[in-house]
Amino acid sequence: MMEFNFAGCWALFVKEVKRFYSVAVQTIFAPVVSTLLYLLVFGQVIDTQIEVFSGLSYSQFLIPGLVMMAILQNAFSNTSSSLIQSKMHGNLTFALLSPISPLEFYLAFIGASVIRGLAVGAGILIVGMYGFGITIDSPAWVLLFAVLSAAMMGGLGMLAGILSDKYDHLAAFQNFIIMPLTFLSGVFYSIHALPGIWQTVSHFNPFFYMVDGFRYGFFAQSDVTALMSLWVTSGFLILISSINLILLNKGVKIRK
Amino acid sequence: MSSAVQFQQVAKQYGDFEALKGISFEVEEGSFFGLLGPNGAGKSTLINAMSGLLVPSSGSIKVHGHDVVQDYRKTRRLLGLVPQELISDPFFNIRQLLELQSGYFGIKGKSQKLWIDELLERLALADKAESITNELSGGMKRRVLIAMALVHKPQVLVLDEPTAGVDVDLRHTLWEFAKELHQKGHTIILTTHYLDEAEALCEKVAIMQRGEVKALDTTDELLSSHPFRYVRVSVDEESAPLNDQLQSRLVESDASGYLFKLEKDMGMSDMLGMIHQSGISVKDIRSRDASLEEVFMELTGAAQG
Questions:
Q1: Which residue is closest to A104 within chain B, CA to CA?
Q2: What is the DSSP string of A156-219?
Q3: What is the mean pLDDT of the segment spanning A8-37?
Q4: Which of B28, B95, B108, B109 is exposed most, by the fewest CB atoms within 10 A?
């Protein structure tokens, strides 16, 4: 029977949560505030001019997208920055010397990234609910997409952390891959507002399905079917997890 | 006696560079074993392969009969490694680090808290327990690494150059602690550049060079099998120059005299005869067997040439 070191996995998960919580101003409150600035700027300026989905103000349309964007970016940051810092300071050695398996290592890191993503997302959502009267059509659907998407981005962050040898590599990953894909995922607009070719291109962006599926949980309206978004998001989560587990099992760039 | 660690044809390659060239030897359970060699000999590579920090290209390593790749959970519970590089963690204090490390091994409870307290006390870290490692000196960081390696009470303790850059006081504390663990039955594997330490502590020694084991024997046997002994001749300030016979045996000289290397089968009377012929004015003569450092230099120096 396959052994699972639950205690070890839990300890590493707790360590990762405590790590980001110990600098909560930087890891939770700052992203909440900076994301709300988008809401302030875009929401207030454009609110009266655009109606993306029927019966919704632009601010109301925007909020789920911003929540998901924050979840994605912070889940990514948590694993990637923790891993590269651990590599730089050398303290990754402590976990590598312990009887924690690659799967347990992966689950602990991803679990912590989901917690951070949800914490930041919840901060923005609370403002959206109380400040802009946004309601949730299906809380279970919203939670499901939030967890799956955060886990996928946590996995992508781990991949970036494993492959990066220095902060510069990680910054390139973040600025040239994560940021463009996030901004072009339909956070600020419906893809139906785009010209034909860009609508097609958007369908190749996995982040689009995360944002669209998440938004469906709020309004029961979306650009593509919610089931389609669920399959794409789950598929990417499985793909990224598989790549990570292969790399961790081989010890690529970690066990040299 | 059964073996604590077994290396079988362990090789590690980085591209064209062979860091380990099929290393095979055993470390007996309960022994104090020295792994010596110049920089780049492959000592740390071998230790890291044993601890799971790197994956060997071929061969196998067993700790108490368990393979370090296939059965890594068991071997990592059996091994405690004090790595060569200093490690820091800016987020947690020393006590938290020790508790987290215990958690990775699934160890918790009151007895573990007492063991952590004991480690902090024994390694003179008790007053720094609430400090983060970034605030500590190099010597203190080294103590933390030792505590981290011992937190799960491993059977085999591996010390990779633990006294590099530490003061005399810590060095003394560390060796007393290591000797105590050894007396309790733990196997200790040590790499160090301080060969006098290895000579004093290790029962058996392997000397590595360029990824190979050049010598492997008990420390006593290595010292006694060395073909030379050493004669220290103290001279008056104004002394005659050495003749060719003495010159060929000269190891080093300073203002107070000379150190000569003699074949063991050469009698002291022959040496005295050479000194007499040379006409140097002798104040004192002392003869001694080779030290581990001289054995080491002979083995590794000869191979380099």
A1: B104
A2: HHHHHHHH-SSHHHHHHHIIIIIHHHHHTSSSSS-GGGS-HHHHHHHTT-HHHHHHHHHHHHHH
A3: 96
A4: B109
Spatial separation of the C-alpha atoms in residues A43 and A61, rounded to whole Å: 9
Chain A residue with minimum CA distance to B101: A94
What are the Cα distances from residue B207, in Å, to A170, A228, B213, B264, B286?
41, 63, 6, 22, 28
Rounded to a whole number, what is the distance in Å from the CA of B116 to chain A's nearest CA?
16
Q: Do B92 and A23 touch (CB under 8 A)?
A: no
ipTM of the complex, rounded to two decimals: 0.90
A14, A90, A100: residue with CB nearest B87: A90
Chain A partners of B55 at a C-beta cutoff of 8 Å?
A: 250-251, 255
Per-residue pLDDT reduced to its tens digit, A89-143: 999 999 999 999 999 999 999 999 999 999 999 999 999 899 888 999 999 999 9
- How far apart are the C-alpha atoms of B67 and B279, rounded to whole Å? 64
| Whole-number Å distance between alpha carbons of B178 and B88 | 23
Cα–chain center distance at B251: 25
Chain B residue numbers with beta carbons less than 8 Å from the beta carbon of A8 are 103-106
Residue carrying structure tokens 């949730």: A136
- pTM of the full structure: 0.89
Per-residue pLDDT of B30-55, as tens digits, reads 999 999 998 889 999 999 999 999 99
Choose, out of B76, B104, B107, B108, the residue to mutate when testing the contact with A (most A CBs < 10 Å).
B104
